[in-house]
Amino acid sequence: MRKYLLLFIITIFVMSCSKKVDVKGKITGGSPLERIELIEASGVATLPLVNLGLDKDGNFSGSFDAPKNGMYEISYGGKRNIIYLKAGQTLNISGNGATFPTEYIITGDAKKNNDFFVATQKYLVNYAQKINIQELIARDEKTFLQGVQKIEGDIKTNIEENIKKFNPDNDVVEWKKIDVASTILSVMAQYEMVKKMSGDPSFKVSKVFTDFENKLQQDKDKMLKISPTYRSYLLNKYNSDFQKFAEPRASKNPSVTLSELFTEFMKSKKDTPQLTKDYLLSFVIAQDIRPGIDPKALDKISKIIDDNIKDNEIKKGLKNIELAIAGNKIGTAAPEAPLVKQDGKAYNLSENKGKPYMLFFYASWNPYISEATVPVLKEVVNFYKSKMNFVFVNVDDTKDQFVKTSNSLLKGIQGVNVYGEKGMESEIAKKYGVYGFKLPCFVIIDKDGKIASRSFVNLGEQELVTILDKLTGLAAPRVDQAPQQMPQGLQVDPSAQQQAPQPANPQPAQTK
Which residues on neighbouring strands pair with residue 20, listed in sequence order? Predict the structure, then answer.
């Protein structure tokens, strides 16, 4: 039987004016091949907001627009953690390359909030090791409720103790309280589900149980906006009904997407507020927008976003996911953006009009490009260069690095070498949905200057070769080559593992 489980429930205590945040610091022993990224942890589309490189001494600096005050994921060298940031702050953060960001030092105006956050997270981890949630879930309802109420009380006491100790801002205290309430609600939802699955589908919790649930979620709109864990809880509450709704429809139409099914399901929920529908539907949509998605399915999902998501910020987040995964819509005009050649002269993509061309986005700090991509790129260019152009777009941090990289990496390969000013923060990178996890990136534009392909991360994909053959009239020899999988990095749900573009649950940071 096909199952449509929306999300898994977590059962341990883990994570879930000017807008600019300035970031600076130093990673001792850090590698210039590794990048630091910051991602909004509570948003619908947790795509990197900034991508920073280290200099030879491990120093880094940059800035980004923070969508809101709240939790942000910081990642480096495959490791992740969560920190609390407010718009207008300067984040001074440092550490050692071997342990950063699992361990870090924060100074300046972000210190007191993060000292509070770290202390409460450490307490939760230690507390979780002392209790057996599965054993508690197996008990009768009265005993279970007494257990979770004690858990709530103990954690609240610790929060109050840390408020006195660190004097944090109200925002971070509110976030922590909402995170705790959302996690307890998730455990309660699991208790209810387990009881129903254990042989009594008609099982219903008591009024005392629901009263406690309602007490934990008095400000539902704020919880929706702040806590992915709370959104997970709501999705799990719908799971049973959605199963019944989806299975017969999927049997009649096996190609139907989860987004289509859940959209129709939400339409039947007349009493559910629109904001709740927007957030929950966005979670499901983010699961469907995956690398290699069928273009027809993507068109359907894109229409769902346009027609059914009413909140502009949520809609914008989903459109950003769509751009990051699939690229610009095929058939639309290829976006122009400022580009410069090595000699400093401006370059316009429209100079290629009348001839198809390939855009190749790359940076020196991605070792895969020199090791695996460039040898294949040489073959592709040599085969198709009589019928199409090639534009190599560098997104390194500085123009000097662009000149060095293009001269060494692409020496002897026919094509135009250009630079997007500000690298990963450049206009060209934003317009083509290029992120660190999406390098290298290839996009094909036809002779009329229109997008002719989705974004590719591997030159060996048969779909890409087919498009090149069609636009040039050539026929490349077929070679079996396993497509490169999309690198891990496009992620959504920091706290609840919400099956979409998402940071993993970080361990609480250790400050030195």
Answer: 65
